[in-house]
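User: I've been trying to design a sequence by hand for this structure and keep getting stuck. Would you show me what you'd pick, starting by listing the structure so we're on the same page?

Assistant: Good idea, let's start from the same input. This is the structure you sent:
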């Protein structure tokens, strides 16, 4: 009888052990819709935690037996959530996981994330470069991909650090993390909205300034309109002996604007030019000589007369033209051009002579301002930017006229068709003979 009672007890206890298994509620932790991959996320022992679950359907899984304590390393938000409200659960009550255990509601300044874990989220920061995820938010970190993974996408260009209370590895720190966690109660980050290069800081140490990624960097120059194609900084090296090296010192901004990337960097003598002077002028900490123009061998505040800055901010001494007989009143150059702009290119000399004041100027070499007098005056002058040629043909200066056309002082050095001297002489002779005959 005692034996039978004992066996019955054993059987009963076996039965009760088997049937005491109390499954959890369904929770949507399956990330693949076919097993419980995803349900261990957030636990120290991810695979051990995942093994506590059994697949149900869709994205649903449930804890196989809530009466067994999951333990510190396997407990996570999904275990808490699945076993919460199960009467005989061995887990602490509560649908969320905070710190080291389940909790019924996230503490102050915390909110449950997508895997039921209470975290201290950062503020929204506009670091998404795609507008669909947090690509861009890792910028400035040594390990950019790791830094980016700390963010949760919000909307538009906004992302936020998922959990500011988590310690961030040195190589993953950047300006966006500092900016997002700055001012967040419970943040484990050093206070400050910018990244100094080693940690968050309230401001950059002069002369460094914060760039658009909230990282303290050496000061860039001001925008200068030196891009010749509106897509890169081609054109910004103009005027330097080593133009390609000078150009490489610039960062493209937008439109025709570029800026010197780092004005604190020393520029080699052969790479200096007007655009570098102009961009770094007035920038705190600049290693360049102050001044917006380049004169001789360095930056200068202004060009020494009679030099003046050309279109590339380089001081140029004027290149005077040859005397040409275009003054029609022997007191000014009103006869040298069709309008005030062209007339203004000339300086009166004496008698009927005038000369182009500066054949190197943009005004003198502009196609619309060219005429025969400008061509003839500037022809052969070293440093002239006026097209070569002693006469004007079609729309530019030319070294010869097309067949059948001539140019001389008589027709203002403009190639025109008409009676050539040979024809005139022939007529003169013809008339002379005609005169003799009558
Ligand atoms: C800001 O500076 C950091 C570090 O130099 C750099 O990685 C990042 O690209 C910069 N951001 C911008 C927008 O230039
Ligand atoms: C960046 O961090 C991730 C995650 O911690 C790591 O797997 C990867 O090796 C790191 N890369 C570099 C270049 O440090
Ligand atoms: C910009 O123009 C220069 C020539 O002026 C050319 O060499 C360079 O490739 C151009 N850049 C782009 C991006 O088109
Ligand atoms: C221009 O500078 C670059 C970079 O420093 C250098 O490689 C190149 O040899 C220089 N060219 C000339 C003509 O000095
Ligand atoms: C001056 O005259 C030239 C030639 O006729 C013309 O092309 C140019 O547009 C004129 N400039 C002004 C400012 O009137």
């Amino acid at each position: 009888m005692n034996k039978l009672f004992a066996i019955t007890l054993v059987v009963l206890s076996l039965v009760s052990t088997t049937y005491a298994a109390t499954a959890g509620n369904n929770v949507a932790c399956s990330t693949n819709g076919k097993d419980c991959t995803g349900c261990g996320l957030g636990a120290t022992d991810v695979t051990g935690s995942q093994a506590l679950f059994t697949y149900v359907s869709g994205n649903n899984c449930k804890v196989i037996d809530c009466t067994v304590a999951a333990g510190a390393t396997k407990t996570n938000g999904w275990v808490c959530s699945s076993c919460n409200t199960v009467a005989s659960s061995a887990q602490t009550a509560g649908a969320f996981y905070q710190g080291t255990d389940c909790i019924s509601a996230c503490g102050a300044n915390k909110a449950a994330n997508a895997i039921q874990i209470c975290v201290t989220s950062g503020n929204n920061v506009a670091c998404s470069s795609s507008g669909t995820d947090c690509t861009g938010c890792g910028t400035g970190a040594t390990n950019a991909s790791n830094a980016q993974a700390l963010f949760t996408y919000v909307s538009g260009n906004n992302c936020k650090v998922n959990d500011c209370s988590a310690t961030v590895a040195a190589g993953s720190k950047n300006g966006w993390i500092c900016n997002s966690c700055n001012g967040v109660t419970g943040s484990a980050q050093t206070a400050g909205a910018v990244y100094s290069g080693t940690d968050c800081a309230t401001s950059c140490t002069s002369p460094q300034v914060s760039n658009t990624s909230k990282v303290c960097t050496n000061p860039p120059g001001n925008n200068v309109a030196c891009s010749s194609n509106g897509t890169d900084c081609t054109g910004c090296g103009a005027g330097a002996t080593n133009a390609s090296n000078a150009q490489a010192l610039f960062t493209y901004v937008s439109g025709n604007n570029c800026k010197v990337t780092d004005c604190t960097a020393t520029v080699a003598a052969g790479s200096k030019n007007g655009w570098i002077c102009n961009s770094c002028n007035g920038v705190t900490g600049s290693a360049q000589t102050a001044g917006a123009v380049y004169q001789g061998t360095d930056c200068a505040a202004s060009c020494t007369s009679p030099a003046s800055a050309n279109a590339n901010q380089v001081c140029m001494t004027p290149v005077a033209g040859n005397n040409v007989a275009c003054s029609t009143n022997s007191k000014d150059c009103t006869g040298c051009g069709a309008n005030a702009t062209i007339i203004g290119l000339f300086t009166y000399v004496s008698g009927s002579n005038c000369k182009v004041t500066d054949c190197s100027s943009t005004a003198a070499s502009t196609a619309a301002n060219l005429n025969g007098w400008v061509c003839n005056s500037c022809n052969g002058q070293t440093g002239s930017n006026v097209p070569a040629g002693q006469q004007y043909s079609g729309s530019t200066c030319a070294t010869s006229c097309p067949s059948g056309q001539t140019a001389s002082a008589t027709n203002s050095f403009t190639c025109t068709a008409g009676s050539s001297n040979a024809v005139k002489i022939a007529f003169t002779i013809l008339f002379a003979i005609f005169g003799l005959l009558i």
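That's my pick for every position. To get oriented when you compare it with your attempt: The pocket of 2-acetamido-2-deoxy-beta-D-glucopyranose (ligand 3) is lined by residues 228-229, 231-232, 234 (CB under 6 Å). The CA atoms of residues 407 and 415 lie 5 Å apart.
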